[in-house]
Amino acid sequence: MNSQETIVVLGAGESGVGAAILAKSKGFNVFVSDKGQITSNYIKILNEYEIPFEEGKHSEERIIEATEVIKSPGIPDTAPLIKKLNSLNIPVISEIEFAGRYSDAKMICITGSNGKTTTTLLIYHMLKKAGINVGLAGNVGHSLARQVAENNYSHYVVELSSFQLDGMQQFKADIAILMNITPDHLDRYDYKMENYIDSKFRIIQNQTENDAFIFCQDDEIITKELKQISIQVQKHPFSIYECLPKGASLRDEDLIIKNENINLNMKQKDLSLKGKHNIYNSMAAGIAGSILGIRNDVIRESLSDFEGVEHRLEKLVNVRGVDFINDSKATNINSTWYALESMNDKTVWIVGGVDKGNDYSELMDLVKEKVKAIVCLGLDNSKIHAAFDGVINSIVDAESMPDAVKKAFELADEEATVLLSPACASFDLFKSYEDRGNQFKDEVRKL
């Protein structure tokens, strides 16, 4: 590596700061540029590592001097600065791509429109229980790049969004997991579903016949795509409808996992995570554990004592007969479909935020069956009203979380459930889905 080579990092969040630390540790000249304001904790870290940075702007004349640019997954390829870099043939990659160059660890990578965080944390839980030296990275945990710089893990469990996958070129997953593909982030993909599908299937790029691909056999988009491409990787499907000779299936009340290493049976009732969507998550995690050679008893124990994910169908408290459930992590239609499907009737549904091209008609049957009232929580609720006005008698608007919780509680009655499952991104009123969920929990506690 030439000491005169310069890495510019665009974005100074967890991903960007981690990439900067790794680049500095490998002897590159490093410069970090963030168009917004950098939080104080990341400013402190950059100063500790003596990494120069700027905030509130992108100094183009300095950025285009880069040998290579690492960009935040939140910056789209259509951004003018990225287009300029591409026109100058300056490589633009992701933090994950950069980190992968400097690690020989086994990479277990998970993507999908829904369920990827739960599955990622479940696999991490399993590997920790098995005594494996494992790191947690990507969309959850700490930056992969910073962990590669500062730790020596033998395995990483990495949750990958489509945005992160888009910036990967040579990175390879040893075990790739694709949970499902449903319309999401279409605003980022020219509203073309095929572009989003291509992005998700980058999870298997560079895999060989020695690697593993775990996927949902019940997902029509995935199975259709697999018929159209040729891959050498070892396939491990999972299904709740078909009895498969390899992978994971249901038979009567048993979850069955089969491959060259194990033949595992487990009672469905013993799974810690309930609901159809969580059976899929448990199947994918169980297959991954079996491929890694984890003992059956450890896999069973892990699938039975995992405690779930904050902001994903998180049961809160019962207030005077009304249950409250925090599903703030549901940022698309499919996630909310699973949430509504798991509800009993008499549900007050809090929905809304930044729409990503939602088709609410996909929820219509469930809404008619389960929902007694809707609270629209967003700056623009017109699409929700257009979909459900006349279908649900009680639809009200709220422009803050205190207002939404108050109105939802008033609309509920004894034995009803208030469900926050927005089906939208959070950035109109909140910093993140975590902020939205935490505000919801705070307001519920005040009732």
List the keywords.
20 strands; ligase; 3 domains; 17 helices; UDP-N-acetylmuramoylalanine--D-glutamate ligase; globular; six-stranded mixed sheet; UDP-N-acetylmuramoylalanine-D-glutamate ligase activity; six-stranded parallel sheet
What does this structure look like?
The chain has a 6-stranded parallel beta sheet, covered by helices on one side. Strands 15-16-20-17-18-19 form a 6-stranded mixed beta sheet, with helices on both faces. α1 packs parallel to α7, α6 packs across α11 and α6 (116-129) packs across α12. It is globular. The model has no long low-confidence stretch (mean pLDDT 92). β17, α14 and β18 (371-377) form a beta-alpha-beta unit. The protein contains 17 helices and 20 strands. With 447 residues, the protein is α/β, with parallel strands linked by helices.
Question: What order do the helices and strands come in, and which of them pair?
Answer:
Elements: E1 6-10, H1 14-25, E2 29-34, H2 40-48, E3 53-55, H3 60-63, E4 68-71, H4 80-87, E5 92-93, H5 95-100, E6 106-111, H6 116-129, E7 134-138, H7 144-150, E8 155-159, H8 162-166, E9 175-178, H9 193-200, E10 212-216, H10 220-228, E11 234-238, E12 247-251, E13 254-258, E14 263-267, H11 276-291, H12 296-305, E15 314-319, E16 322-326, H13 333-341, E17 347-351, H14 364-370, E18 371-377, H15 382-388, E19 394-398, H16 401-411, E20 417-420, H17 433-445
Parallel strand pairs: 1-2, 1-4, 2-3, 4-5, 6-8, 6-9, 7-8, 9-10, 10-11, 16-20, 17-18, 17-20, 18-19
Antiparallel strand pairs: 12-13, 13-14, 15-16
Helix pairs in contact: 1-7, 6-11, 6-12, 11-12, 16-17
